[in-house]
Design a protein that fits this description.
Layout (H helix, E strand, L loop, with lengths): L3 E3 L5 H12 L5 H9 L3 E6 L2 E12 L2 E9 L8 H12 L4 E7 L3 H9 L3 E6 L8 E7 L1
Amino acid sequence: MNSVTTANLENIEGIVKLDCEIIGNMSRRKHIEKIVGEGRCLIIKEEDEVQAFLLFDTNFFECSFISLIIVSKSARRKGYATALISSFENIAPTQKIFSSTNQSNTNMQKVFEFNGFVRSGYVENLDDGDPEIIYFKLI
């Protein structure tokens, strides 16, 4: 696995391509462009292709928040999400890190728990019948 780096404008096409492969559309392109431009995106590349990325901000009650982690289907179960989380912990602007995932996303729940996050609550009504579980870690 290649190392985690901060994305730059040259990486946007690869990030958007990967995002589109996973969610089936390019609806987050402008958001990704903004986040990358602000230096709030970490990536892992393999053979010049973006294989995984993490987006973050500090808009969650002034705490660090991992808003999105995407790993390509071919790179899953290889430690990419853990590598991104670990790298983010080293640069996080706050000691408190939060993130979330749907109740139906048991794989991501396992990733958070493996990386020392604990459940901190949930939010109903974002996705019908699929509550969002909030995770927390103090670094």
